[in-house]
Amino acid sequence: MMSQWNIDMFRAINDLGKQFPFLNPAAVFVAEYMLYVLALAMLVYWFTRSSRNRMMVIQAGLAFVLAEIIGKLAGKIYEHHQPFAELPHVNKLIDHAIDNSFPSDHTILFFSVCVSFWLVRRMEGWLWLALACCVAVSRIWVGVHYPVDIAAGALIGIISALFIYWLAPKLGMIKRLLALYEKAEQRVLPIRRKSGSM
């Protein structure tokens, strides 16, 4: 049985799309397509060819994998369908299959990756955390998740990012694999030294 506060909070956010319909396209873009911005950011960080950035991307990837595993286990323990499948008059703005919506996969992804970014790069990390929060709210706005799905996804993502941030430096294998990759990369795409340097 869905708790009333969860339904009330869902209504409060989802009904904003009815009150401010001009914001709906922005909510749809954030809910559906910000995923590609995050993927592009990970590629850009990787190809800066900074070891710090690359370790950050590796940690973010591992945090996401761990968070997804925890999320799937959580979904076995507790499940419910999307709000648009259970409640009347939902402002549903995107197509979505009816399945278990607990916890939110998008929220798991954004919080595991964005918190990993924040832990390493605090300055722009706050922007990534803000983006993760915007994506989380947008998934309620477009009608595909309850607040409880979002809260669980965020918590799982945060815990996974913190755990991997603590664990990764202790795994020498990761550093060795990264060193091997960078050695091979240097052969294929050598970094040219500036001429005239002493």
Explain what you see:
Keywords: Membrane, Transmembrane, Transmembrane helix. One of its GO terms (molecular function) is undecaprenyl-diphosphatase activity. This is Undecaprenyl-diphosphatase. By secondary structure, the protein is mainly alpha-helical. It has a domain of 113 residues. 72% of the residues lie in helices and 0% in strands. The termini are far apart. The C terminus is likely disordered.
List its traits.
single chain; mainly alpha; 9 helices; 0% strand; elongated
Question: Which structural class should the secondary elements be placed in?
Answer: mainly alpha
Instruction: Note the main sheet.
Output: none
Shape: elongated
Series of secondary-structure elements, N-terminal to C-terminal: HHHHHHHHH
Calculate the mean pLDDT score and round it: 90
Provide the low-confidence segments as ranges.
194-198
N-end to C-end Cα span: 72 Å
Q: How many β strands by DSSP?
A: 0
What Rg is obtained from the alpha carbons, in whole angstroms? 20 Å
Total DSSP helices:
9
Strand content: under 5%
Layout of strands and helices, then pairs:
Layout: H1 4-14, H2 16-19, H3 24-46, H4 51-77, H5 83-86, H6 105-120, H7 122-141, H8 147-167, H9 172-188
Helix pairs in contact: 3-7, 4-6, 4-8, 6-7, 6-8
Outline of the structure:
InterPro entries: PAP2/HPO, PAP2/HPO_sf, UPP_Pase. By secondary structure, the protein is mainly alpha-helical.
